[in-house]
TrEMBL record:
GO terms for molecular function: GDP-mannose 4,6-dehydratase activity; NADP+ binding. Gene3D superfamilies: NAD(P)-binding Rossmann-like Domain, UDP-galactose 4-epimerase, domain 1. InterPro entries: GDP_Man_deHydtase (IPR006368), NAD(P)-bd_dom (IPR016040), NAD(P)-bd_dom_sf (IPR036291). This is GDP-mannose 4,6-dehydratase. GO terms for biological process: 'de novo' GDP-L-fucose biosynthetic process. Its cofactor is NADP(+). Keywords: Lyase, NADP. Belongs to the NAD(P)-dependent epimerase/dehydratase family. GDP-mannose 4,6-dehydratase subfamily. The keyword NADP applies. The gene is gmd. The lineage of its organism: Bacteria, Pseudomonadati, Pseudomonadota, Betaproteobacteria, Burkholderiales. It comes from the Bacteria. It holds the Pfam family GDP_Man_Dehyd. Residues 8-347 form the NAD(P)-binding domain. It catalyses: GDP-alpha-D-mannose = GDP-4-dehydro-alpha-D-rhamnose + H2O. It comes from Rivibacter subsaxonicus.
Length: 373
């Protein structure tokens, strides 16, 4: 009888953590995850995977923890003795990292060191394989297009600088201690589980709510930013594959196709039968409805449904990112399965379903209870 492999996922409550946990459970792994204590439940994305700790053969186990607490990390890793660690936890919002730079460095940079050191302190260098969630943000002010593994880094935010430390400390521990440690340099990946304040989800959620009359206008920052957007489900499969090779290596994962934020907005609106035209420029740019097909959207021609709000501009911006995933194609068998149009459609449909529920509650189901009745 072969015993199941054991994986530990930091950031299991996030977008990628949820998809990765699902993937590993389907592959027969026992999955341990680290979640943070919060005053409200923060396990929505993995509630469908939850297993009662009282059942025999529990295959999903959650531990309280934090990347800023090394004793906690050492204790969890000692207890779990993982074959694979996926370090997905991070303060992952680029704009927020300008507001909380020190915390971001602590969690995203030093947090990675804490895990690597825990592996070493516990003598697990030869047993435990380590995946670091590196990012296309490392390329920042791009030095070469498209970006590949050898493209020089030029980080443009406290988030990216912290992730650059994490990238290099992972490489260093691989070289210094012979650990199986690798970086996945992943370009933007999205899904219906994406956090609501990242631009794609902010757009699909707002378009759905505007279509149903729950919101009037969406405020965005830099509409000209160009990104290489893929589907998170495809990308977590590559995280797993990176840990199944004979030699640890770093890989770029991207689609190789680029769109602007403006194009994402247009595409999302079109999914709801709304054709938009962008007018003006810079901080005054707006999107105006020019045609409405079908009956999904309540807005009408002439409505201004997107405005630029300079408060969403970043002190230093990453204007353009486009990945070259040739190495992953050759060595990991990487082929993205979801097109840009399919990604936008899936996100819009999911948010439209959620907005319809809100709409129903507002119009039919909601009543403030009157104690005098
Ligand atoms: P999310 O923001 O959705 O998830 C981040 C996870 O990290 C959450 O589970 C969060 O917990 C947890 N977390 C945050 N801070 C801490 C901390 N101090 N200690 C422990 N856990 C913490 O990110 P994604 O799933 O989108 O991304 C996963 C990883 O990949 C991140 O490291 C991100 O930087 C990186 N990345 C993401 C890309 C993308 O396009 N999605 C592209 C390239 C890299 P909680 O739920 O409580 O907030
Ligand atoms: P990014 O993702 O910064 O690339 O980091 P985000 O979706 O936040 O921004 C993408 C681009 O859109 C522009 N933008 C806006 N962004 C947000 N969030 N809100 C807005 O209103 C808005 N308007 C325009 C941004 O300026 C930017 O150019 C994501 C994160 O998941 C990181 O953790 C990850 O490392 C990288 O992707 C790859």
């Amino acid at each position: 009888m072969t015993t199941a492999k054991v994986a530990l996922i930091t950031g299991i409550t996030g977008q990628d953590g949820a998809y990765l946990a699902e993937l590993l459970l389907a592959k027969g792994y026992v999955v341990h995850g680290i979640k943070r204590r919060s005053s409200l439940f923060n396990t929505d994305r993995i509630d469908h995977l939850y297993q009662d700790p009282h059942v025999d053969d529990q295959r999903l186990v959650l531990h309280y923890g934090d990347l800023t607490d090394s004793t906690n990390l050492i204790r969890i890793i000692q207890q779990v003795q993982p074959d694979e660690i996926y370090n997905l936890a991070a303060m992952s919002h680029v704009a927020v990292s300008f507001e909380t730079p020190e915390y971001t460095a602590n969690a995203d940079g030093i947090g990675t060191l804490r895990i690597l050191e825990a592996i070493r302190i516990l003598g697990l260098e030869k047993k435990t394989r380590f995946y670091q969630a590196s990012t296309s943000e490392l390329y920042g002010l791009v030095q070469e297009t498209p970006q590949k593994e050898s493209t020089p880094f030029y980080p443009r935010s406290p988030y990216a600088v912290a992730k650059m430390y994490a990238y290099w400390i992972t490489v260093n521990y691989r070289e210094a201690y012979g650990m199986y440690a690798c970086n996945g340099i992943l370009f933007n990946h999205e899904s219906p589980l994406r956090g609501e304040t990242f631009v794609t989800r902010k757009i699909t959620r707002a378009m759905a709510r505007i279509a149903l009359g729950l919101q009037d206008c969406l405020y965005l920052g830099n509409l000209s930013a160009l990104r290489d957007w893929g589907h998170a489900k495809d990308y977590v499969e590559m995280q797993w594959r990176m840990l199944q090779q004979t030699q640890p290596e770093d890989f770029v994962i991207a689609t190789g196709v680029q769109y602007s934020v403006r194009q994402f907005v247009e595409r999302a609106a079109r999914e709801l039968g709304v054709t938009l035209e962008f007018r003006g420029e810079g901080g005054n740019e707006v999107a105006v409805v020019v045609r409405v097909d079908g009956d999904q959207a309540q807005c009408k021609p002439g409505d201004v449904i997107v405005k630029v709000d300079p408060r969403y501009f970043r002190p230093t911006e990453v204007e353009t990112l486009l990945g070259d995933p040739s190495k992953a194609k050759a060595k990991l068998g990487w082929t993205p399965t979801t097109s840009f149009e399919e990604l936008v459609r899936e996100m819009v449909q999911s948010d439209y379903t959620a907005a319809k529920r809100d709409h129903l509650i507002k119009t039919a189901g909601f009543r403030i209870y009157d104690y005098n009745e």
